[in-house]
C-alpha cells in the first residue's frame, strides 16, 4: 500500500541518487512506463530507458541536491529542491518545484519539474 | 496566449482573493469545468459552483495567505503557500504546495493541494 511515509522516503532517495549521479539507479525509482517532463511544457520522456538517458546528462557533474520543502498527499508528492552544480568555470543553482505521482508499490509514475530560466542562477567562479 | 507572467499574476491574485475570503471571486479565476482536489487524494470537486461551495468554507474566517515560493512553466504553476487562520481560540497555520494548470486564457483548469495533517500547526491563543 502506498503511504505518505513511503512517498517521502522515495523523494529523499531520489535526491540522494541525484547527488550520486547514477542515471540507471535514478531510473530504477520509476515505474517501467513512467513519464518525465522537465521542465513542464517540454517534451515528455516515457519509459525507463528514455528516463535513464535524460538523467545521464548529469554524469560527471559535481552536484548537490537539497530538499527544501516536501509535501505529500494521496498518490502525489510536491517538493522544492535546490540543485547546485559546479564546473571549473561556474556554480549554477536551480530551485524547481517537482511534482511526482506514485503507483501502489511506491514507484514514480510521473515527474513534472516546474521551473523557468528565471529560477536558475549562475555564478562565475573566481580564478584561483 | 498563456505566459509565465500571466500564470504568476493569477497565482498572486488567487492568494489575494483567498485573504479577501470571497468564494465567488475565487471561483471566477477557474475555468467553467475546472477541478479542485484539496488535499490531493480526496474527492474531486468539478465546476465553478462546486468550487465556490468549497471555498465558501472560508467565509468569515480571519485569514492571511502568503506565497512563499512560486514556480511556473508550460501550463503549470506550483507554489508553496502559508495560510494562517485565526479564531477566538486558535491560530492555525497550513503550508501546502499547490499545483495548478491553466488554459490559454489564463484561467485555472485544475488545482491539487499537496499537504497532510503533519503540515498543519494549531496554537491555542493565550486567554486575554
Describe the structure.
The structure is a homodimer of 128-residue chains. Chain A has one domain (4-124): Nuclear Transport Factor 2, Chain: A. Chain A contains three helices and eight strands. The first copy, chain A, has helices at 4-20, 23-27, 48-55; strands at 30-37, 45-46, 62-73, 76-86, 90-94, 97-102, 108-114, 120-124. In chain A, strands 1, 2, 3, 4, 5, 6, 7 and 8 form an eight-stranded mixed beta sheet that branches. In chain A, a hairpin with a 5-residue loop joins strand 6 (97-102) and strand 7. The interface between A and B is medium-sized, with 28 and 28 residues. Chains A, B: Pfam families: SnoaL_2. Chains A, B: InterPro entries: NTF2-like_dom_sf, SnoaL-like. Chains A, B: Residues 11-110 form the SnoaL-like domain.
Note the topology.
The structure is a homodimer of 128-residue chains.
Chain A: H1 4-20, H2 23-27, E1 30-37, E2 45-46, H3 48-55, E3 62-73, E4 76-86, E5 90-94, E6 97-102, E7 108-114, E8 120-124
Parallel strand pairs in A: 1-7
Antiparallel strand pairs in A: 1-2, 3-4, 4-5, 4-6, 5-8, 6-7
Largest sheet of chain A, in brief, is: 8 strands, mixed
> Whole-number average pLDDT of chain A?
95
Do you know the CATH topology of chain A? Nuclear Transport Factor 2, Chain: A
Number of helices of chain A: 3
Low-pLDDT ranges of chain A: none
What is the oligomer described by this structure? homodimer
Q: What general outline of chain A do the C-alpha atoms trace?
A: globular
SSE topology string of chain A = HHEEHEEEEEE
Instruction: Specify Rg of chain A, calculated over alpha carbons.
Output: 15 Å
Strand content of chain A is 35-45%
